[in-house]
From TrEMBL:
Any GO molecular function: DNA binding
Membrane topology value: Multi-pass membrane protein
Protein name: Uncharacterized protein
Localization (cell): Membrane
Chain spans, region Disordered: 240-266
UniProt entry keywords in alphabetical sequence: Membrane, Transmembrane, Transmembrane helix
Cellular component, GO annotation: cytosol; endomembrane system; membrane; nucleus
């Protein structure tokens, strides 16, 4: 049994190249370095978050803590994947632009806090540094770039839909204002504005009713104050009728339940 296990172990070791075998043997050590550097990065980022309220007074404390946290975080990934292979991958054609941008933003952050002392430049350079660092961290894992691109597309589409919805809402509001201003006299609009201050929901319902009547051609002329009061009383009567109907339905429901309970008692 022992000879069989030694044969399997020797075959598995000979199947790997010397570089791969060294990577397998050094993985526990690299993982420990990764955890330690990641904890160190968390410590520096925590210090940066504490110094963030003091950015106007002491920008150097935030910038130094943030930069050291960024370097520690990137070093953690390099320790896990191997320093030589990871540094070589950062210098490849597809990563050289981001690597240059990260180094420039890192130097700009340190220069802004140590030489210029400007919190505005510190914020801009730290933001660029954070974006490039996030992309490096995402691209360090398999499928990370695809997941990042998918998330970016989903967020951009959601933002476009929100902007389109806001534009449609703005256009509808402008159309309502134009219709209201064209079919209502100044006295009626003033009364509507007073109602909107006290009861905005009721004023919105009145505006919708007036716009629907105007679109259907049910308004022969402009709505003066007398017609507006008549429309207001009609809308109030309809609301009271609907409220009374709901109350009757509730009473009927509860009375049926009480009758059912009485039948159960017998």
């Amino acid at each position: 049994m022992l000879s069989l296990w030694s044969n399997i172990k020797s075959k598995s070791q000979t199947a790997l190249s010397p570089a791969q075998l060294d990577n397998v043997k050094s993985y526990p050590q690299r993982f420990r370095s990764f955890v330690l550097l990641l904890l160190l990065a968390g410590l520096f980022f925590g210090m940066a978050s504490l110094f963030l309220p003091l950015l106007l007074l002491r920008p150097s404390k935030f910038a130094l803590s943030f930069s050291f946290g960024s370097i520690s975080c990137l070093s953690a990934v390099a320790a896990l994947r191997g320093w030589k292979s990871y540094c070589t991958s950062l210098l490849q054609a597809e990563h050289i632009l981001l690597t240059t941008l990260y180094l420039i933003s890192l130097g700009a952050t340190l220069y802004s806090c140590l030489v210029m002392g400007s919190y505005l430049y510190v914020l801009v350079s730290a933001g660029v540094q954070l974006v490039t660092l996030g992309y490096f961290l995402v691209s360090a894992f398999p499928g990370g770039v695809a997941a990042f691109n998918s998330t970016r597309l989903v967020i951009s589409r959601s933002m476009e839909q929100m902007q389109a919805e806001q534009m449609r809402k703005k256009e509808n509001d402008e159309m309502k204002k134009q219709i209201i201003s064209s079919i209502m006299t100044p006295e009626a609009k003033e009364r509507l504005s007073r109602i909107a201050i006290v009861k905005p929901d009721k004023a919105a319902a009145l505006e919708d009713t007036i716009i629907q009547m105007a679109q259907r051609g049910q308004l022969p002329g402009q709505i003066d104050e007398a017609k507006f009061i008549e429309l207001l009383s009609r809308t109030g009567a309809a609301e009271d009728q609907q409220r009374t109907k709901v109350t009757i339905q509730r009473r009927t429901y509860f009375s049926d339940e009480e009758d059912a309970d009485d039948d159960d008692d017998f």
